[in-house]
Each structure stands twice: as C-alpha cells, then as structure tokens.
Amino acid sequence: xxxxxxxxxxxxxxxxxxxxxxxxxxxxxxxxxxxxxxxxxxxxxxxxxxxxxxxxxxxxxxxxxxxxxxxxxxxxxxxxxxxxxxxxxxxxxxxxxxxxxxxxxxxxxxxxxxxxxxxxxxxxxxxxxxxxxxxxxxxxxxxxxxxxxxxxxxxxxxxxxxxxxxxxxxxxxxxxxxxxxxxxxxxxxxxxxxxxxxxxxxxxxxxxxxxxxxxxxxxxxxxxxxxxxxxxxxxxxxxxxxxxxxxxxxxxxxxxxxxxxxxxxxxxxxxxxxxxxxxxxxxxxxxxxxxxxxxxxxxxxxxxxxxxxxxxxxxxxxxxxxxxxxxxxxxxxxxxxxxxxxxxxxxxxxxxxxxxxxxxxxxxxxxxxxxxxxxxxxxxxxxxxxxxxxxxxxxxxxxxxxxxxxxxxxxxxxxxxxxxxxxxxxxxxxxxxxxxxxxxxxxxxxxxxx
Length: 450
What we know:
By secondary structure, the protein is of the alpha/beta class. The chain has 13 helices and 15 strands. It has helices at about 30-40, 45-50, 80-105, 130-135, 155-170, 190-200, 265-285, 310-320, 325-335, 340-350, 355, 425-430, 435-445, and strands at about 15-20, 25, 60, 115-120, 145, 175-185, 215-220, 230-240, 250-255, 255-260, 300-305, 370-375, 380-385, 400-405, 410.
C-alpha cells in the first residue's frame, strides 16, 4: 500500500514534479526589435514599449529567438501556422516535463491511470495531450481530460480536477496515479498582438508579459503499490468566480491566434479577493491548520505571477513580503508569465535549496504552502498543500547556455536556476518603492483595451 494520510486528510500526494522551459530567452529589447522592424512609431506603440521596459521581467522564455521565421513573415501567422509550431516545439517540452515528474515519482508510463492537461494556446482536436501520451508511451486505455478556457488558472484547475478523480478512485477502492500537464506557447502571438496595438491604437501589455513553458506533476491517492514519500500533500482547494468580470480577463480567438484581454480593473479585483479567498480556503479544509498558522504571513505562498501588480497587490492585501512569494518572483523575473504552466513551475521551484535560503526574516521554509492563481471569468483557484520538508533542499542543476534574442548567451535551465531573488524582484516588492509595478499601474489607469 502507498503511504497513508493523516487522520482527516484526503490521502492525495504530489509525488513528482517537472518543468521544462524552451532554449531561448527574450528581453525587453526583443519586443522593441519587432516593433521597429514591422510597425510605425505611434503613441500606443510608444506606451506599450515603455511599459515593456518596466514589467520587472528580465527575460521571457521562448521556443525561438526574434529571428524565428514564424514571426518574421510579411503578416502575422495564422492559427494553422501557430498550431503547427505548438505541436512541433511545444509537445516535446511537455514530454520532457512529464518525464521529469514520472522519474521522480518512480513510475513507469504504464502505471499512469489518468492524464489531466490544460492549455489556452491551442484548441485543435485531438488535443495536445493525445500526442504527449503517445510519445510517453502511456496506456491506450488511459483516461484523459483536457481543460480549455481556464487560462492562467489552468494549472491549479487541472490539479483540482485530478484530485477529484483521485478521490473517485479511492471511493471505488482503486489506485490512481494521475499525470497533470500544462503547456503554453505564447510568444508566437507577438505579431498578432502588435498588429492590434498598431491598427486599433490599444495599450495591450500582454505582449510584454507572456512566455513559453511546460510543467507537470504526478498526483497519487493512498491505494495500490508503494510510492515515494510526497513532495507535497494536497489538503484542500477552492474555486470561485468574481461576478461580472467576464470581459475583464480573457483570451479571444482570432484568425491570427488569440488576443489577450486584460483591463485595468484586474489588479484591483485580484487584490480585493485574496483575503476572502484565503479565509474561504481555510474554513473549507477537512482539518484545520496547526495553531502556529493564524494569518496569511505564517504560510509560504505560491502565487501565479500574472504581472508585477498582481504580486505587489498580494503583498498589500495579505501583509506578505517578496520572500513569502520568493518562487513566484523568481519565476516571473527569470521566465515571465507562462499562463497555466506557471503555477506548477512555481511549486517546483519553491522546494529548491536556494529558495529555502530566502525566507522572510530567515525563519526557514514552512511546511504549509498556499497556491493561488487567477484565470478568465475572473476565476480564483486556491489550494492548500503540506510540503514534505524531509524531501527538501534539492540542489539546483548547473547552469546551461541558451540563446537570447540579442545573440548573446543567457543562463537557462530545465526548470530551476541557481540565484537568489533578482534585484528586480526586490524592487517590485519594496514598500514605498515598487519601481516597475508602480509605473505599470499608472500606465494602466486609462488604457484602451478590448
């Protein structure tokens, strides 16, 4: 039998994680290069490029550099062209992330009972999960679920879906070993977004935030053959909608891909909902947290880094510091916002030794972690996890060289990089000196967005 849960717990364990970023990075200069090459210098373009320099992101991970032929044609690529690259370049990333998770879980592909996947940057049939399962050699009788329309909250939505499937198998007395995969290829939409900025004179900041990534976890119930001790135990989750916000955050279909919808109301909505979402999560847990956990600041946090204003808003709403969200800041600064794949990457990053050295006031890592992400709707996904500190202190892999958009080498990795919080992260979180975040907030006061 697998390891039993403590009394009152659900018996759900994350026993393997994997993250795979692609081998290129894009800096703020990369977007400026596209703008100068293809578009006239207009007030809207100037405003977006100004925001681009102050997002707090040092590099965004990408499947190609700024010379990639897909985004250097006379017009923006079509959905068909985008999908072809999503499959050719994205699926291998997902396969790599999944293999990392399977290896850590000590599972053969044949032992996976279910697969729950998510993306918002492809909508073809069969879904990308079919090709990932095929390339991994998963069972032909594998039960698959592909979530669409959940955007940046997709990683936690997929984990929540996998958890309910696990519980269903537990009720039937069956083992469940569920592979959760999130894959996003966003940087190929650069020309489509810049087209809208140029033609409609809209201030669209998504083009300066999004990046490419695949992440995976393996979720197990407490039945069947022995499994490794958990990396995280999943203790509970909550899902809710902020009413009347459907037009504030989204990803609209278009002949040249998808168009990011992000209105200036989003940071205020997310900041306002965090405290009640936290309280709702705590009261929903089957077992109350230990008495040492009485406020949000007592936990470590894995918050989806949707943008600088999301992170700094969480600090204000929950009385947190950048160190509480150290893996979120790190991921945002080094890789950007990879939509649904980001939150699973943040959870993977959080457990590494260099992150454990960056805790608030040097208190050390906490075993209770709250994960949170926002998606279209606006949807709020939260989850409570217990981190197994006995499996802590993962050494970060050595640096590898990847290509950057300016032709120089840049430090890259397969999911983790060995450095402390970037100075950009410290600036974004510094009280009274929030740097780029403050600039972006001011720039977004009256933008013209869908």
